[in-house]
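quick one, 116 residues, struct below
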Amino acid sequence: MKPLAGSKRPKSWIFWYGYRVVKRQATNRIWFVCKYCHIHKTIDAGGGGLFNITQATTSAATHLSQPKRGHNLRKDSLKLTLRAQGQLSLWQAFDAGLEMPQPTANALGNFDVQGF
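---
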């Protein structure tokens, strides 16, 4: 289940790729569940993906950095999504001279990332 209290430490980058949970019987121990391993049922098959992070997140970070499918992730290398062949980013479209109506530009300029 979700921990009863939030962490007093800054949130680690590993939580972009997994969940912070506790067992109902032992709420004083915090666990990390790898999102990829959870979705693909690797944990149920005994393949790992569940780590005790009460003291440190190193074991979970090491798991995420392994060179295997769905992993190979590090703090300094964010996962980038590839655009379809020939699809331009907004920046490239503006550089190419794309005309945009003012209300649309205003809506994009006031986009609230936190609210999204």
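The two ends are 25 Å apart (CA to CA).
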